[in-house]
Amino acid sequence: MEKFCFLCGKKGTRLKDGYCLECYKKKTKLVDVPKNINLVACKKCELYRIKNDWKKASIEQIILNNVKDLEKNVKIKLIKKGKSWEITATKGKDEVHKVDTTVRTMICPVCARKFCDYYEATIQIRGEFNDKIMNFIIDLMLHDERKDPKSFFSSSDVSGGIDIKFGNKKSAISISETVKRKFDCRVTKSFKLVTMRDGQNVYRDVICIRFI
Length: 212
Ligand SMILES: [Zn+2]
Ligand SMILES: [Zn+2]
Description:
Blueprint: E1 15-16, E2 19-20, H1 21-27, E3 31-32, E4 36-42, E5 47-50, E6 53-56, H2 59-65, E7 68-69, E8 75-81, E9 84-90, E10 94-106, H3 109-115, E11 121-127, H4 131-147, E12 153-158, E13 161-166, H5 169-182, E14 185-197, E15 200-211
Parallel strand pairs: 4-10, 11-15
Antiparallel strand pairs: 1-2, 3-7, 5-6, 8-9, 9-10, 11-13, 12-13, 14-15
The structure holds zinc ion (ZN) (2 copies).
Residues 42, 44-45, 47, 108, 110-111 line the site of one zinc ion.
């Protein structure tokens, strides 16, 4: 029996998975792409809200994460076309999809904290400290900030030393412990009542590191 295409019934042609090449091209999709992708971005920084979490990402990455490969080893190319994006999936053929993005902006919790002067802990640097000590502390802070954007900090000169505000209490505590092991210093902790939230007292850790 002569083979024929499932779809158009054409005979005497090369078949692929039961379809003539023309129908095969039409029938098989390489990728599934949503027509529109809704994005929520922070107005002040480069974080995007992805699945209830705020993450550092680029719009390109987010679009690519929304492309579902229906076949293995599909090559994907993404280019911006005016206000839209064009995705070209390649595997034996080129398949072009157009994607629109809708971007809503809001302020992420990290920036909300930063700009509303929210912080969880303060480290007070006091006594006989020098540049070597400060550079050591700054390195620790930058390391934490890279790991977790919630670990932002800001420092200011005050009479008698430097105050560093920490967005993340854990980071402040671990840094003070590391510093204590490395340098001659006395570390004292106190708590300052800052506000009431949901009927609970909210305290801010104040860690004083006095170098001797
Ligand atoms: Zn056919
Ligand atoms: Zn932000």
